[in-house]
Design goal:
The protein has helices at about 20-30, 40-55, 70-85, 105-135, 160-180, 210-220, 230-235; strands at about 10-15, 35-40, 60-65, 90, 140-145, 185-190, 250. By secondary structure, it is of the alpha/beta class. The protein has one domain (about 10-255): Rossmann fold, CATH 3.40.50. The structure holds nicotinamide-adenine-dinucleotide (NAD). The site of nicotinamide-adenine-dinucleotide has 31 residues, from helix 1 and helix 4.
């Protein structure tokens, strides 16, 4: 099996225009990687690619891409291979968090969250794997799961979001087994409560301050994560430092999943 390639690598980040994805783009840029930033928000992707170049990326391109669309994902990967070469790394991270109680949940909302979070990860992995296999690149893929893939959030109403994250975790384990023989490592990131627009998406703006204080008091490390915290874990999984790590979940949650909620 060929060794992992040295020197600048092409890393693809979906949802790279904001939050954890953007922080991962900048963390990889600081290592001198070549970055491809994908986001349905093209302006945000362009800004992140510009930031990547300022942070030291060897090259950075942005692609306006909705991960729900197979045509758009296929086109984005074709463009990446042409401009930056076959990807060494993929951070399949784009996601949304919306939902509500299952008996009230419109089918359209279920499908939107499934198509974005789970189908989006499937499509990006499909085209990244094709490009890696075609170029015989022993690459690394990281997919963003969540504590909600393992436990139910106390606030409730997170059924569809949680189902997508549990699906991503299962997909990661299966892909890790399927592609180990090619030297392609596939892992999941499990970020805890992280200061991004998604974190407060379902909270009325006037309640965010109070909720931040409450949530911080419930996290063993006593604070929410900054996007740079999980981004460092992603950069590690995408590096040679993690050369024997595949099929695993890297939990970066300040201790949330380690804690039982009963007070005895
Ligand atoms: N913030 C948290 O507390 C937290 C916790 C656990 C897991 N996560 C997961 O981390 C990932 C990143 O979330 P974040 O908190 O950085 O959110 P964010 O809202 O800051 O960033 C998400 C990005 O994904 C993009 N995106 C959304 N739908 C897309 C689509 N269909 N196609 C392409 N791009 C799309 C958005 O435009 C945005 O730039 C998500 O998968 C989320 O579920 C977040």
């Amino acid at each position: 099996m060929p060794p992992e390639s040295a020197g600048p690598r092409t890393i693809v980040v979906t949802g790279g225009g904001s939050g954890i994805g953007r922080a991962a783009v900048l963390a990889c840029a600081k290592r001198g990687d070549r970055l491809a930033v994908l986001d349905k928000n093209g302006d945000a992707a362009r800004e992140a690619a510009k930031g990547a170049l300022q942070c030291g990326a060897t090259a950075a391109i942005s692609l306006d891409c909705n991960v729900q669309s197979e045509d758009q994902v296929a086109g984005a990967f074709a463009s990446i291979v042409q401009q930056l070469g076959a990807p060494y790394g993929l951070f399949a991270n784009a996601g949304i968090d919306t939902g509500g109680p299952i008996h009230e949940l419109p089918l359209a909302t279920w499908r939107l969250v499934m198509d974005t979070n789970l189908t989006g990860v499937f499509l990006c992995c499909k085209y990244a794997l094709r490009a890696m296999l075609a170029a015989a690149v022993p690459g690394s893929i990281v997919c963003t799961s969540s504590p909600t893939g393992f436990v139910a959030l106390a606030a409730g109403g997170a059924g569809v979001y949680s189902a997508t994250k549990a699906g991503i975790s299962a997909l990661v384990r299966c892909m890790a087994i399927d592609y180990a023989r090619y030297g392609i490592r596939i892992n999941a990131l499990v970020p805890g409560a992280t200061e991004t627009p998604l974190m407060w998406n379902n909270v009325p703006p006037e309640n965010v301050g109070r909720m931040r204080t409450q949530v911080s008091s419930e996290i063993p490390l006593g604070r929410l994560a900054e996007p740079e915290d999980p981004a460092k874990a992603v950069a590690w999984l995408l590096s040679d430092e993690a050369s024997y790590v595949t099929g695993s979940h890297l939990v970066c949650d300040g201790g949330i999943l380690a804690k039982a909620c009963i007070s005895v």
